[in-house]
């Protein structure tokens, strides 16, 4: 099963993507996580990506597409994958379709986790990320067992630079301008499914599982 998660930054698509990956035993591929790992490891890609990420801008398509195409060609993706944060532009979606077409495949579902902007700004200010393993929490919705400490690896939890309020508004503007057109793109392909992302996390997941035919 090949799934794309769509939704504004902070809509909860990452949390849902991880659950889908676990339930269907397919890899969770998050371009944001890949960029953050590169930043942490000080790679050239990480240095270039950081310049854009810190401003709430998208990393250019030419830096993003090849890395995803390479990742989905790995053996562990042969039964499917869940893409989280990719595609984010129409050219990225076209590049993905093109790459899959070459191997006689296509995406199965594009799941749009729909949340109004007003909810997003509140949510993002409570988000915390682990400096060690990248796990994400929310001070109210998904608190760690011990405040400020990651349950998984024990590292410190921080508010990511790109989750700071001034950057969040910029990311939302970028989302509406560059990513929202993908909703129509996948609707035209007949694979778009929209879920109400303002519900409790478990209810959002139940709606998604129903769509995927759990
Ligand atoms: P995320 O963790 O998915 O919210 O991504 C964090 C940041 O990484 C975004 O605000 C972008 O700067 C960058 N990024 C992640 N995925 C993409 C993508 N598909 N295209 C361009 N930039 C991306």
Please name the defining characteristics of this protein:
Rossmann fold, alpha/beta, 214 residues, binds adenosine monophosphate, globular, 5-stranded parallel beta sheet
Protein architecture, described:
The protein is an alpha/beta fold. It has a single domain, classed as P-loop containing nucleotide triphosphate hydrolases (Rossmann fold), CATH 3.40.50.300. Helix content is 48%, strand content 15%. It contains nine helices and eight strands. The protein has helices spanning 13-24, 31-40, 44-53, 61-72, 90-102, 117-125, 165-179, 181-189, 201-212, and strands spanning 2-6, 28-30, 81-84, 109-114, 127-130, 136-138, 157-158, 192-196. A five-stranded parallel beta sheet has the order 2-3-1-4-8, with helices on both faces. A three-stranded antiparallel beta sheet has the order 6-5-7. Helix 2 crosses helix 3 and helix 4 (61-72) runs parallel beside helix 5 (90-102). The chain is globular and about 45 Å long. The N and C termini lie close together (12 Å). The model has no long low-confidence stretch (mean pLDDT 94). The structure holds adenosine monophosphate.
